[in-house]
Automatic annotation (TrEMBL):
Protein family according to the UniProt entry: Belongs to the binding-protein-dependent transport system permease family.
Membrane topology, as annotated: Multi-pass membrane protein
Name recorded for this polypeptide: Sugar ABC transporter permease
Protein source organism: Cohnella xylanilytica
Keyword 4Fe-4S: no
Gene3D superfamilies: MetI-like
One GO term describing the cellular component: plasma membrane
Cellular localisation: Cell membrane
Domain of life of the source: Bacteria
Transmembrane parts of this sequence: 24-51, 88-108, 120-141, 174-197, 218-242, 281-303
Length: 315
Protein backbone atom coordinates (compact mmCIF):
# COMPACT_ATOMS: atom_id res chain seq x y z
CA UNK A 1 0.00 0.00 0.00
CA UNK A 2 1.36 3.44 -0.97
CA UNK A 3 2.08 6.13 1.61
CA UNK A 4 -0.81 8.28 0.30
CA UNK A 5 -3.27 5.39 0.67
CA UNK A 6 -2.00 4.73 4.19
CA UNK A 7 -2.49 8.39 5.15
CA UNK A 8 -6.03 8.38 3.70
CA UNK A 9 -6.87 5.18 5.60
CA UNK A 10 -5.42 6.63 8.81
CA UNK A 11 -7.39 9.83 8.30
CA UNK A 12 -10.65 7.93 7.81
CA UNK A 13 -9.91 5.82 10.87
CA UNK A 14 -9.28 8.92 12.97
CA UNK A 15 -12.51 10.50 11.65
CA UNK A 16 -14.62 7.47 12.56
CA UNK A 17 -12.97 7.33 15.99
CA UNK A 18 -13.84 10.99 16.67
CA UNK A 19 -17.42 10.37 15.50
CA UNK A 20 -17.68 7.32 17.76
CA UNK A 21 -16.32 9.26 20.71
CA UNK A 22 -18.99 11.94 20.09
CA UNK A 23 -21.80 9.43 19.42
CA UNK A 24 -24.03 10.90 22.15
CA UNK A 25 -23.88 14.32 20.49
CA UNK A 26 -24.81 12.80 17.13
CA UNK A 27 -27.73 10.98 18.74
CA UNK A 28 -28.93 14.29 20.20
CA UNK A 29 -28.61 15.84 16.74
CA UNK A 30 -30.53 13.02 15.03
CA UNK A 31 -34.15 13.98 15.97
CA UNK A 32 -33.66 17.54 14.73
CA UNK A 33 -32.05 16.27 11.52
CA UNK A 34 -34.92 13.84 10.89
CA UNK A 35 -37.45 16.61 11.55
CA UNK A 36 -35.71 18.92 9.06
CA UNK A 37 -35.59 16.25 6.36
CA UNK A 38 -39.18 15.03 6.79
CA UNK A 39 -40.93 18.37 7.33
CA UNK A 40 -38.61 20.88 5.58
CA UNK A 41 -36.71 19.21 2.74
CA UNK A 42 -38.99 16.42 1.46
CA UNK A 43 -42.04 18.72 1.10
CA UNK A 44 -40.01 20.87 -1.32
CA UNK A 45 -40.54 18.20 -3.98
CA UNK A 46 -44.26 18.86 -3.70
CA UNK A 47 -43.76 22.36 -5.12
CA UNK A 48 -43.87 20.77 -8.56
CA UNK A 49 -47.69 20.97 -8.38
CA UNK A 50 -47.39 24.77 -8.74
CA UNK A 51 -46.53 24.09 -12.39
CA UNK A 52 -49.31 21.56 -12.90
CA UNK A 53 -53.07 21.42 -13.04
CA UNK A 54 -52.84 19.07 -10.10
CA UNK A 55 -55.54 16.50 -9.43
CA UNK A 56 -55.55 14.29 -6.35
CA UNK A 57 -57.05 11.53 -8.50
CA UNK A 58 -54.23 11.60 -11.06
CA UNK A 59 -51.37 12.38 -8.71
CA UNK A 60 -48.17 14.32 -9.34
CA UNK A 61 -46.89 12.06 -12.11
CA UNK A 62 -50.02 12.13 -14.27
CA UNK A 63 -51.33 15.66 -13.66
CA UNK A 64 -51.21 18.02 -16.64
CA UNK A 65 -48.27 20.45 -16.86
CA UNK A 66 -49.33 24.10 -17.28
CA UNK A 67 -46.00 25.89 -16.68
CA UNK A 68 -46.37 29.40 -15.23
CA UNK A 69 -50.12 29.61 -15.86
CA UNK A 70 -51.04 29.82 -12.17
CA UNK A 71 -48.36 32.46 -11.47
CA UNK A 72 -49.66 34.58 -14.36
CA UNK A 73 -53.27 34.14 -13.19
CA UNK A 74 -52.39 35.38 -9.69
CA UNK A 75 -50.45 38.45 -10.91
CA UNK A 76 -53.25 39.38 -13.32
CA UNK A 77 -55.96 38.87 -10.72
CA UNK A 78 -57.76 42.13 -9.88
CA UNK A 79 -57.47 41.18 -6.19
CA UNK A 80 -53.67 40.83 -6.41
CA UNK A 81 -52.68 44.39 -5.46
CA UNK A 82 -55.09 44.54 -2.53
CA UNK A 83 -53.55 41.34 -1.13
CA UNK A 84 -50.02 42.69 -1.63
CA UNK A 85 -50.95 46.03 -0.03
CA UNK A 86 -52.52 44.40 3.02
CA UNK A 87 -49.61 41.98 3.44
CA UNK A 88 -46.90 44.62 3.04
CA UNK A 89 -48.64 47.10 5.36
CA UNK A 90 -49.02 44.47 8.07
CA UNK A 91 -45.38 43.46 7.63
CA UNK A 92 -44.14 47.07 7.75
CA UNK A 93 -46.12 47.86 10.91
CA UNK A 94 -44.85 44.60 12.39
CA UNK A 95 -41.27 45.59 11.54
CA UNK A 96 -41.76 49.10 12.95
CA UNK A 97 -43.00 47.89 16.34
CA UNK A 98 -42.28 44.18 16.89
CA UNK A 99 -38.61 44.53 15.90
CA UNK A 100 -37.44 47.58 17.95
CA UNK A 101 -39.50 47.09 21.12
CA UNK A 102 -37.55 43.98 22.27
CA UNK A 103 -34.30 45.95 21.83
CA UNK A 104 -35.61 48.82 23.94
CA UNK A 105 -36.95 46.40 26.56
CA UNK A 106 -33.63 44.51 26.67
CA UNK A 107 -31.73 47.78 27.18
CA UNK A 108 -33.89 48.70 30.15
CA UNK A 109 -33.74 45.20 31.66
CA UNK A 110 -29.96 45.31 31.32
CA UNK A 111 -29.92 48.47 33.43
CA UNK A 112 -31.72 46.77 36.34
CA UNK A 113 -29.11 45.90 38.93
CA UNK A 114 -31.36 43.97 41.33
CA UNK A 115 -31.01 40.35 40.10
CA UNK A 116 -34.28 38.91 41.56
CA UNK A 117 -36.33 41.75 40.07
CA UNK A 118 -34.47 41.40 36.78
CA UNK A 119 -35.22 37.66 36.58
CA UNK A 120 -38.86 38.23 37.57
CA UNK A 121 -39.37 40.84 34.83
CA UNK A 122 -37.70 38.61 32.23
CA UNK A 123 -39.85 35.62 33.21
CA UNK A 124 -43.05 37.68 33.23
CA UNK A 125 -42.31 39.15 29.78
CA UNK A 126 -41.39 35.73 28.37
CA UNK A 127 -44.61 34.04 29.56
CA UNK A 128 -46.96 35.30 26.74
CA UNK A 129 -44.82 33.46 24.18
CA UNK A 130 -46.20 30.16 25.49
CA UNK A 131 -49.83 31.25 25.16
CA UNK A 132 -51.43 29.89 21.98
CA UNK A 133 -52.79 32.26 19.36
CA UNK A 134 -56.31 30.92 19.96
CA UNK A 135 -56.15 31.84 23.64
CA UNK A 136 -54.64 35.27 22.93
CA UNK A 137 -57.33 36.14 20.40
CA UNK A 138 -60.01 34.90 22.81
CA UNK A 139 -58.61 37.20 25.50
CA UNK A 140 -58.64 40.05 22.99
CA UNK A 141 -62.26 39.36 22.06
CA UNK A 142 -63.20 39.36 25.74
CA UNK A 143 -61.38 42.63 26.47
CA UNK A 144 -62.83 44.40 23.41
CA UNK A 145 -66.34 42.95 23.46
CA UNK A 146 -69.01 45.68 23.01
CA UNK A 147 -71.05 43.97 25.76
CA UNK A 148 -69.13 43.68 29.01
CA UNK A 149 -65.64 44.14 27.57
CA UNK A 150 -63.24 45.99 29.86
CA UNK A 151 -62.18 48.51 27.20
CA UNK A 152 -65.76 49.41 26.26
CA UNK A 153 -66.77 49.61 29.92
CA UNK A 154 -64.06 52.23 30.38
CA UNK A 155 -65.21 54.08 27.23
CA UNK A 156 -68.82 54.03 28.48
CA UNK A 157 -67.72 55.34 31.89
CA UNK A 158 -66.00 58.23 30.09
CA UNK A 159 -69.18 59.00 28.14
CA UNK A 160 -68.26 57.38 24.80
CA UNK A 161 -70.29 54.84 22.84
CA UNK A 162 -69.21 51.20 22.66
CA UNK A 163 -67.00 50.22 19.73
CA UNK A 164 -66.98 46.75 18.17
CA UNK A 165 -63.23 46.79 17.56
CA UNK A 166 -63.07 43.30 16.07
CA UNK A 167 -65.55 44.22 13.34
CA UNK A 168 -63.94 47.54 12.40
CA UNK A 169 -61.51 47.26 9.41
CA UNK A 170 -59.57 50.30 10.62
CA UNK A 171 -58.69 48.64 13.93
CA UNK A 172 -57.51 45.29 12.55
CA UNK A 173 -53.87 46.20 11.86
CA UNK A 174 -53.38 47.88 15.23
CA UNK A 175 -54.87 44.89 17.07
CA UNK A 176 -52.82 42.38 15.07
CA UNK A 177 -49.53 44.24 15.65
CA UNK A 178 -50.40 44.79 19.32
CA UNK A 179 -50.95 41.05 19.80
CA UNK A 180 -47.61 40.28 18.15
CA UNK A 181 -45.79 42.79 20.35
CA UNK A 182 -47.37 41.34 23.48
CA UNK A 183 -46.56 37.75 22.54
CA UNK A 184 -43.04 38.17 21.13
CA UNK A 185 -41.27 41.09 22.80
CA UNK A 186 -40.11 39.09 25.85
CA UNK A 187 -38.95 36.13 23.76
CA UNK A 188 -37.04 38.26 21.25
CA UNK A 189 -35.49 40.35 24.03
CA UNK A 190 -33.68 37.26 25.33
CA UNK A 191 -31.44 37.30 22.25
CA UNK A 192 -30.36 40.88 22.89
CA UNK A 193 -29.97 40.35 26.64
CA UNK A 194 -27.73 37.37 25.90
CA UNK A 195 -25.66 39.53 23.55
CA UNK A 196 -25.32 42.19 26.26
CA UNK A 197 -23.94 39.68 28.76
CA UNK A 198 -20.93 39.17 26.47
CA UNK A 199 -19.98 42.88 26.51
CA UNK A 200 -16.60 43.48 28.16
CA UNK A 201 -17.26 45.05 31.63
CA UNK A 202 -14.08 47.10 31.23
CA UNK A 203 -15.87 49.18 28.59
CA UNK A 204 -18.42 50.29 31.18
CA UNK A 205 -15.66 50.95 33.71
CA UNK A 206 -13.86 53.14 31.19
CA UNK A 207 -17.11 54.98 30.49
CA UNK A 208 -17.60 55.55 34.24
CA UNK A 209 -14.09 56.99 34.51
CA UNK A 210 -14.94 59.37 31.66
CA UNK A 211 -18.04 60.50 33.57
CA UNK A 212 -20.57 58.98 31.16
CA UNK A 213 -24.21 58.91 32.28
CA UNK A 214 -26.43 55.83 31.96
CA UNK A 215 -27.91 57.10 28.69
CA UNK A 216 -24.47 57.79 27.28
CA UNK A 217 -23.32 54.28 28.20
CA UNK A 218 -26.38 52.83 26.46
CA UNK A 219 -25.74 54.75 23.24
CA UNK A 220 -21.92 54.68 23.29
CA UNK A 221 -21.23 51.20 24.70
CA UNK A 222 -24.23 48.86 24.77
CA UNK A 223 -25.83 49.56 21.39
CA UNK A 224 -22.55 49.53 19.39
CA UNK A 225 -21.57 46.27 21.13
CA UNK A 226 -24.76 44.47 20.07
CA UNK A 227 -24.87 46.03 16.60
CA UNK A 228 -24.01 42.74 14.89
CA UNK A 229 -26.87 40.93 16.63
CA UNK A 230 -29.32 43.71 15.72
CA UNK A 231 -28.29 43.65 12.06
CA UNK A 232 -28.58 39.86 11.81
CA UNK A 233 -32.03 39.92 13.44
CA UNK A 234 -33.08 42.74 11.10
CA UNK A 235 -32.01 40.73 8.05
CA UNK A 236 -34.05 37.77 9.29
CA UNK A 237 -37.02 40.09 9.91
CA UNK A 238 -36.75 41.40 6.33
CA UNK A 239 -37.08 37.80 5.14
CA UNK A 240 -40.42 37.61 6.95
CA UNK A 241 -41.78 40.82 5.46
CA UNK A 242 -44.28 38.96 3.27
CA UNK A 243 -45.09 36.46 6.01
CA UNK A 244 -47.76 37.05 8.62
CA UNK A 245 -49.09 34.99 11.51
CA UNK A 246 -51.84 33.14 9.66
CA UNK A 247 -53.25 31.60 12.83
CA UNK A 248 -53.96 35.01 14.35
CA UNK A 249 -55.45 36.36 11.12
CA UNK A 250 -57.77 33.40 10.63
CA UNK A 251 -58.89 33.63 14.26
CA UNK A 252 -59.54 37.37 13.95
CA UNK A 253 -61.10 36.94 10.50
CA UNK A 254 -64.67 37.94 9.68
CA UNK A 255 -66.26 39.26 6.45
CA UNK A 256 -66.55 42.81 7.78
CA UNK A 257 -62.74 43.25 7.97
CA UNK A 258 -61.71 41.48 4.73
CA UNK A 259 -60.75 44.85 3.26
CA UNK A 260 -57.74 45.13 5.60
CA UNK A 261 -57.36 41.57 6.96
CA UNK A 262 -57.16 39.55 3.76
CA UNK A 263 -53.47 38.84 3.01
CA UNK A 264 -51.57 36.57 0.64
CA UNK A 265 -51.42 33.68 3.08
CA UNK A 266 -55.12 33.76 3.94
CA UNK A 267 -55.85 33.92 0.20
CA UNK A 268 -53.62 30.87 -0.36
CA UNK A 269 -55.46 29.07 2.44
CA UNK A 270 -58.83 29.78 0.88
CA UNK A 271 -57.66 28.72 -2.56
CA UNK A 272 -55.83 25.57 -1.51
CA UNK A 273 -58.42 24.38 0.99
CA UNK A 274 -61.61 25.81 -0.43
CA UNK A 275 -64.80 24.40 1.06
CA UNK A 276 -66.68 25.15 -2.16
CA UNK A 277 -66.01 22.75 -5.02
CA UNK A 278 -62.58 21.18 -5.46
CA UNK A 279 -59.60 22.79 -3.66
CA UNK A 280 -57.15 24.45 -6.06
CA UNK A 281 -53.90 23.05 -4.67
CA UNK A 282 -51.83 24.09 -7.69
CA UNK A 283 -52.92 27.74 -7.53
CA UNK A 284 -52.28 27.89 -3.79
CA UNK A 285 -48.84 26.30 -4.22
CA UNK A 286 -47.95 28.78 -6.98
CA UNK A 287 -48.90 31.79 -4.85
CA UNK A 288 -46.99 30.42 -1.85
CA UNK A 289 -43.90 29.70 -3.97
CA UNK A 290 -43.95 33.21 -5.44
CA UNK A 291 -44.14 34.67 -1.94
CA UNK A 292 -41.18 32.56 -0.79
CA UNK A 293 -39.04 33.55 -3.78
CA UNK A 294 -39.71 37.26 -3.16
CA UNK A 295 -38.83 36.83 0.53
CA UNK A 296 -35.58 35.07 -0.45
CA UNK A 297 -34.64 37.94 -2.78
CA UNK A 298 -35.34 40.44 0.02
CA UNK A 299 -33.06 38.51 2.41
CA UNK A 300 -30.25 38.45 -0.17
CA UNK A 301 -30.70 42.19 -0.80
CA UNK A 302 -30.72 43.07 2.91
CA UNK A 303 -27.63 40.92 3.45
CA UNK A 304 -25.78 42.66 0.60
CA UNK A 305 -26.69 46.10 1.94
CA UNK A 306 -25.60 45.21 5.48
CA UNK A 307 -22.26 43.84 4.24
CA UNK A 308 -21.67 47.04 2.29
CA UNK A 309 -22.22 49.39 5.23
CA UNK A 310 -21.02 47.19 8.10
CA UNK A 311 -19.21 43.94 8.87
CA UNK A 312 -22.49 42.23 9.84
CA UNK A 313 -23.94 39.71 7.40
CA UNK A 314 -25.51 36.27 7.41
CA UNK A 315 -23.37 34.80 4.63
Amino acid sequence: MSSIAKRNAAGKGALFKRMWDAKILYLILLPGLIHMIVFKLLPLFGLVIAFQDYSIFQGVLKSKWVGFEHFSAFVNDSYFWKLVRNTVLLAIFNLMFVFPIPIIFALFVNEVKNSPIKRFVQTLSFFPYFISSAVMVSILYKLLSPQGGLVNDVLNALGFDSVFFMAEPGWFRALYVGLNVWQLFGYNAIIYIAAMTSIDPHLYEAADLDGASRWQKIFRVTLPSIQTTIVVMFILAIGQILTVDLDKILLMYNPSIYDTADVIQSYVYRQAFSSEGFPNYSYGAAVGLMQSVIAFVLVIGANKISSRYSDSRLF
